[in-house]
Amino acid sequence: MKTSLSFEVVSQLAEKKLTLATAESCTGGWIGRELTAVPGSSGAYLGGVISYTNGVKEKLLKVPAKMLEQYGAVSAPVAAAMANGAREAIGADLAVSVTGLAGPGGDTFGNPVGTVFLGFADANGAIWEKHLFAGSREEVRFAACQRALVLILEHING
Question: Would you say the pTM of this structure is higher than 0.90?
């Protein structure tokens, strides 16, 4: 289901003549679904990678295996690397990434359910942010998707 946030993201990207790519793990393509629900989004949203496994993160997004081993898939360095990797692989001006734990369990690095890292990359490099979202699996995934859309808007609007 498209949201007003997705309309705003597509409108702002088009207005500023910017393109976007996504790299999603725990959201499983939800951000891409939101963006492609907006008519005309193909002018701004180039595509995305659903990198649900470490192997896909490594092969398609060029996240170093050593980084995944040292920090885990749900971490700040991996979120930043995923965003950079998506931007480069897809050839977009900007990229957003999401990696997290929607449940039912945490990970071996001590992250509880609801831990989500988002990354954002542009020509200047990548940044990340950490969140702890509450609720069911779907609520965590929805919150992560919505925050990713807001993160995009924050960066394209300065």
Answer: yes
